[in-house]
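Standup notes
- DV: blocked on the single-chain target, sequence here:
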Amino acid sequence: MPDAPLYRLLADAVLLVHLGVVIFVVGGLVAVVLGNLRHWRWVNARAFRLAHLGAIGFVVLQAWLGQHCPLTVLESWLRQQAGQAPYAASFIQHWVGRVLFYDAPFWVFALAYTVFGGLVVAAWFYYPPQRGADRCRARPGGPSA
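- DV (later): unblocked, structure below
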């Protein structure tokens, strides 16, 4: 298959994008909480917070609908086009894939995504986004920014 190396490369790129999305969703919540405790203005930027809320909202919705992640579907298709079985181990996929994929019933993931989405919504109200991120919420009992 003459295009196999290109499809493998694209599949690995999709896997890395997927990892980036996971880091954004998980790390975004950590950044919002930690950033507000440390008075980092950027964590309350409206664009950042809307993108973060939208990302976890999409994950929760697809889980509730019983759908696979479009990035997983795309990566699997690319691997098949490359003549590989879905999730065949390339170097990048082997190591990055171990971080992203676990063997558990689908409902476990739907519950985890829903709980995490609830935490993101709670952070949205506890640390509301600011226009221009020119303010951040002060620590309870601490000096204001």
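- Follow-up: Confidence is low (pLDDT under 50) at residues 141-145.
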